[in-house]
Amino acid sequence: MFSAIYRSSYRDCSWIASVHCLERNFPLPLPTSAIAPLAKASPPAHAGGSAARKARFWDRIAVKYAADPIADMAGYEATLRRVRGLLSADQDVLEIGCGTGTTALRLAPFTRRLMATDVSAGMIAIAREKLAAESVPQLSFDVADADADADAAVAGQGEYDVVLAFNLLHLVTDLDRALELAMRALRPGGLLISKTVCISEMNPLIPYLALPLMRAIGMAPHVLCFDADALRSAIARQGMHIVSVERHGTRGKDIRVFIVARKPA
Known about the structure:
Layout: H1 14-17, H2 50-67, H3 73-84, E1 92-96, H4 102-107, E2 113-118, H5 121-133, E3 139-143, E4 160-166, H6 175-185, E5 186-197, H7 205-216, H8 228-237, E6 241-246, E7 256-262
Parallel strand pairs: 1-2, 1-4, 2-3, 4-5
Antiparallel strand pairs: 5-7, 6-7
């Protein structure tokens, strides 16, 4: 969900940054995403499933998340340029885990249609306010179904030419299932473009000490710990071809891996 590929905020690890780990920027696009049908608001406390809990977590910090600055602006712009080069005006695009819509607003003009979703109604409300102030006819925002049995599914199969997942895949409950659903949303030959925080590439104190403690006090969401090689393997297990693996950070060690993968034609 993250509509801010390098935002210095909770989704970004602002909660990890508080233990002196990162440059606080992995805007966690809260496992946002979706499988049909789309909901209109984050679920109440009795709603089941991890997605509902995640939605409530991101709802709580949506305003702060939106206000936090992007930490590595040069790296963020590099990623935007790279993604724009992969988009075209004849493509239908889905962004899962769009957060407050910053990235969707920047990329939508280069597509035919961009549907951006997030499980957090609070995030989507802010995204819609931004869209109202900056007309982008190709773009629409919707709240993903938090009762779905996966964090990254979509409404419709084979409906999109590109699926975008920025700072999301480390936040899903089941990585293989999330990737399966994302691939299912793609048309033959379609692209999955992802940017992912690789927690296992951080100081070991983060995944094994800081994160468990912060989760215990409700200051961090569920996260998966893997490195870039493990993520590549997970994508390949879905039968997708890895087109490119890159790093765009400009401020010290970059633990966010950018991967482009293609669904077989």
